[in-house]
Structure formats: C-alpha cells, structure tokens
Amino acid sequence: MRSLRHKLSILQLVSLIILAASLVMIFGWYMKDRLTVDSSSKAQSDLTICKEFIDLKYPGSWVVRDGELYKGTTKMSLNSDIVDHISQITGDTVTVFLGDTRSATTLRSSNGERAIGTKASDNVVTTVLKNGQVYLGNADVIGQPYQSAYAPLRAENGVIIGMLYVGISQASEQESLKRSLVTLGGIGLALTALIALFAGLFLRKLIHSSFPEDIGRPLQEAAAGQNPSSSPGAAEIEKLEDALIQMAEQIQTLTGEINKSTATIHESSPPKGSLNTMLEQLKDFEPSNEFPSTETISQEYEPLFGLDTPWNSGADALPKGLNKATLNQIVHYLEKNRRPISTEEVAEGVKLTRVTVRRYLEFLEQCGALRSEQKCGTVGRPVKIFIPL
Q1: What are the φ and ψ backbone dihedral angles of 362, each rounded to 5 degrees?
Q2: pTM for the full model?
Q3: Is 91 helix (H, G, I), strand (E, B) or coil?
C-alpha cells in the first residue's frame, strides 16, 4: 500500500511539473513574439521623435561642408552630445550617417570606443540611400542583431546625403525575456511543489481511510500457510463472505419456488375449450358498421349466459354495466395471451381502466372461463392473477 501511495505521489508531481513547464514555454513563445512587435513599433515611433527633436533644436537643412555633415549651422559629424542626449530620451542606440558611414553614434565596438567610421549593412543601404525609403526591421549593426529604424537625410535640393538610425538590441531583449522566464519558472516550481505537497497529504489521508494498511495481511498469511490474524480487515472479509453465501442461498430457494409454481400452473391448466367456447358464443356479437335497433338485437341473439346474479338484467344475459363488445375484446385478448395474467396487464393491452377490466375478469371467473390466484407483488402487496381455463 505504501508503494502505491509513492507511485501516485510521483505521478502527480511529474504531471504538475510537466504542466508548469508547458505553461512557461507557451508564455515564453508568446512573450518573444510580443517583444518583437513592440520593439518594432517603438523603434518606428522613436525615429519620428528623433527627427522632430533635431529639426526643432537645430533649424536649417542638412548639408555637407568640407566632408562633414551639418544641420543648418550645427556640425553633426562627431557630435556625441546630440546622439547621447537623444539616446537618454528614447533609451535606444542612435546614429547619424554621412552616406553609409557612421559619423556620430552611441554604438561602441568591441574595444569600447564609439563605432565611428563603420558602415551600414547592404540591405539598409539599398532600402534607404538608393530607394529613399524608411527601413524597419531586424538589421545587422556592427555584428549584432538590432530591431532597427532608418530614415534618409535629404539636402535642400532633395538629394539623400545620409541616414538617421535608432535601434534596440535584441540581445538585451532576449536577456530580459530570459530573466523573466527564470523568475516565472521559479515561482511556478514553488507553487507546483506546494500544490503537490497538499495533494500528497490529501491523497495519503484518502487512501489510508479507504484501504487500511492491514487489509492485505490475511491474504499474505494465508499464502504463507499461516492462519489469518483476527485483524479488522479479516473480520470485514469474513462478514462479506457470509453475506454473499446467504444471498446465493436465498436466490437458489427463490428460483426453486418459481419453477415449482410454473410447473403447477402448467399441470392445472385445462385445454383451451373454455375460452374457445366463449369465443364461439361471442363471435356473433362482432361490431358492424351499421347499428341495429334494440328490437333487432333482442330477436337475433340468444342469451349467452344464464346467470343468477344480482346484476343480471335479464335482457342480454350480461350483468348490468357490462358491454358485449368490451367483453368480446377482453376475451379475444385473453385467448391471444393464454397465460396467467394480471388486471393491470389486461387493462394496458385493451386500453381500458383497471376498474372496468377487473369487473369483466370477475364476470368471466364466475362463468368458469377463468380462475384466480393471489400472488405477492412488489413490497409484499398481493396481486390477483387470472388463469385461463
């Protein structure tokens, strides 16, 4: 029993761990896609902010003088203060290009110095400098992936002379996502362990209350050739065995009584002559499409039964309140179902009330066409069974 508890606890713990890991993976996949979309939107909006900020703070057109890039009268080449200030506002890396070469940037190379003089990637140059379009998306920036946004810088005559760049490092995004997933995974594992602990205690209590530890001891002792100990489990098994034996004996006795009653009914059942005789007497009373008058009926049909009963009307040889057509219907049903039958079954078969059917059955019993016996019904209620003769 202890092994079963351990197996169930381990299965439950493994299931919870798999569930927690699946949730963390799904969350990480969703957050990665979400961060990509958010970074792209941020880079686009930050690029617009940078352009407007430079235009407001440094009026004038973009121009190249003596191989240096100017905005109005302000020199932009090697002007680290401008790109650092914009980077502090947006939180992005910022670069001003003269042609395809970085002339002012916050990016730093592997040696820690600003990446002045490095070139933009070929796909960016094609899109921005040659086609004059804004570039949005992932780009290789000094050997690292960045979510980038590039815009062309045009001179007063419309010629493209440079580019303005803002970007967000994907490495920093992934690092931030990794920290978030690690934190979430730790919280998930802690909650999983806590849930597993409470579930294990509940399961242990449930198994202990349902299956006592010594319930299998009698079987083990019997297999070892010893006498089962008088433990609570052995006593319960003995009581259950006694109850099953008594139930089997009662079923066997009841089956014998049923077989005996069936044989008695078959032996005492006479031939079909009685109901057949009544059918012969009733066949002239089949209902027709035309309804004859009372005088015609009294002239055509002879009395069926000469009964000296208090209900006898003397006109049609039936007790008062009984109808020939109904009697014919019940007799036909009894002839069709020649077996011991109850009032309820006949009433259901001919679609009449039990009170009406019982009067006709008692009338047929007085005529000698049926005999009745009392049988025990449900919950000990006696049921009157009519047997065709």
Answers
A1: -65, -35
A2: 0.42
A3: coil
Residue 189 lies in a domain: no
* The token pair that represents 371 in the structure block: 């005999």
Which DSSP category does 378 fall into? G
Q: Stretch 56-77: mean pLDDT, rounded?
A: 91
pLDDT confidence band for 317 (50 / 70 / 90): low
* Judgement on whether residues 8 and 133 belong to the same structural domain of the protein: yes
Residue 183 has pLDDT above 50, yes or no: yes
Sign of the CA dihedral running 56, 59, 64, 67:
negative
CA-nearest of 177, 200, 170, 176 to 24 is 177
What is the distance, to the nearest Å, from the Cα of residue 223 to the centroid of all Cα atoms in its chain?
45
pLDDT given at position 194: 77
Q: Which residues contact 212 (CB under 8 A, 6 or more apart)?
A: 232, 233
Output the CA angle 22-25-27, nearest 5 degrees. Answer: 110
Tally of domains in the chain:
2
Q: Of 91-100, 137-146, 200-209, which gets the smallest average pLDDT?
A: 200-209
Is residue 218 within 8 A of residue 228, CB to CB? The reply is yes
